[in-house]
Amino acid sequence: VSPRNHMVFTPLLASTTVGTLDFRSVAVNIRTLQPALGMQPNNFFTAKAKEVDPERQVVICQADGKEFEVEYDKLAIATGAQGSTFGIPGVEEYALPLRDVKDASAIRDKLVKNIARSQIPTIKESERRRLLNFVIVGGGPTGVEFAGELSNLVKEDLSRLVPQVSCSVRITLIEARDILGMFNPDLRLYAARILSKSGVEIVKAQVKEVKETTVVLSDGSEIEHGLLVWSTGVGPTPFITSLPFGKSKDGRLAVDDFLNVEDLEGNPVENVFAMGDCACNNLNPLPCTAQVAEQQGKWLSSYVNDVNAEKEAEDAEPQPFRYTHLGTMSAMTTGSAVTDLGGGSGTPQLSFSGFLSWLTWRGVYLTKLGNIQNKIYVVLNWATTQFMGRDLTRW
Fold first, then answer.
1. Pairing of strands 214-217, 207-210
2. Strand pairing partners for 261?
3. Span 87-114, average pLDDT
4. Which end of the chain has fewer CB atoms surrounding its CB within 10 Å, N or C?
């Protein structure tokens, strides 16, 4: 059950906002990923889960304004999370998130629209400068990669197509702490230096309020924005908050070592599991990243199948989920990236940056794409962008 019929490869989502990649390159149809969904007795419902009744063992869903129920023997909840606004006024009204294809499409639409409006002869100079002020709040991988993509767009395309616009673009990255805080200090400094050289202004501050045309910082100063992208972390969705299960301190579903959700008394619910960004083990909290969700999904499918098939010996204890940290990567501008390769403890064993890191970033994410079709799309997109420039068409 899912309200969308595709999976999004979020590590490459920032590239779609400026035309480096097409939207279809980072989206894979669920039936393509899981052909068995078309075989009986399996089903895929394009609907929204509204409620879970653990006593009756049903999920109440809604589609086209009508509700229906789906019975379950075992339930896996993997609904992800939503962008966290931290209760800051104006974020939901005036900022754009970057978590899905529709978010990337909205950002690209406004970006191209602002570039076009800035060239209208009758527009005031002050308004023109505001339209070309692009502000990103959040210095994690998504925010840094989006800032880098914007910089690439300005240097590699706008400077050639509309030089009078490119010289007026201002890119500001706001982060309360150091950017890329999960990386080692040397890589953080490298990333900050590369972004600064590429024209990205890094402002170390907290956002107090978001207005229609400005961002108000904690010191009272304001930064004008024509486009504001919010990328500051995630929080539980209203669906997760409404479920009758135990919660972690940050509002996610509390799970044990076997990914079983806990009831309100803290006892495991044997036939209900949760994984990914919507779940948290209070004794061993893990970051909200794709590799955590991927490893949990693979482990849970194996665990459930083994239990169902009774493959385990009677005297054997099932092994709990164990996360292995493979590393973290983030790209900045063309030819520059940072890479931390880590072991199971999460401590980086190898760190490097520069062109080799950038090639590694591209190579790893290319192999992680859902199917051969998307891999071909991405390679072709990278090639056409390199030799013919980015597509800035607005529909």
1. antiparallel
2. 255
3. 94
4. C
